[in-house]
Design a protein that fits this description.
This protein has helices spanning 27-36, 45-72, 81-90, 107-114. It is an all-alpha fold. It is flat. It has 4 helices and no strands.
């Protein structure tokens, strides 16, 4: 263990140094988040690393899809909430996020329905 191909070779890697094992969501951050939930059993360092990396890849995927949505909408300044919400609404695999990231509705559109 500990060689360049083992899962534990991520130790000491900084996101600033780059490379495939560099994390922005560090294993320590994952471990601290897991400690806060009493229903989750403690995770090994390798499991925390894997969970952090999987989270980063998941977020990168959503961000890339939202960026494509933004370009289709003819904008190029910055991603907006509406871009992310549209991706969640349009992607069946992200249905579990619809309550967390709903599409926005203007109040004016809701007022006639409330009358």
């Amino acid at each position: 263990m500990g060689d360049a191909t083992s899962p534990t070779s991520h130790e000491g890697v900084s996101p600033r140094k780059g490379g495939p094992a560099a994390l922005l969501i560090t294993a320590n951050r994952v471990k601290n988040l897991v400690k806060e939930d009493t229903e989750i059993k403690p995770l090994s360092g390798d499991a925390c690393f894997a969970l952090g990396k999987a989270t980063e890849l998941f977020l990168e995927s959503i961000a890339a899809k939202a960026a494509a949505h933004m370009q289709v909408a003819g904008r190029d300044a910055a991603l907006e909430y509406s871009d992310v919400a549209a991706v969640v609404a349009e992607t069946e695999a992200l249905d579990f996020l619809q309550d967390i990231i709903p599409q926005t509705v203007k109040a004016a559109a809701l007022l006639p329905a409330m009358s």
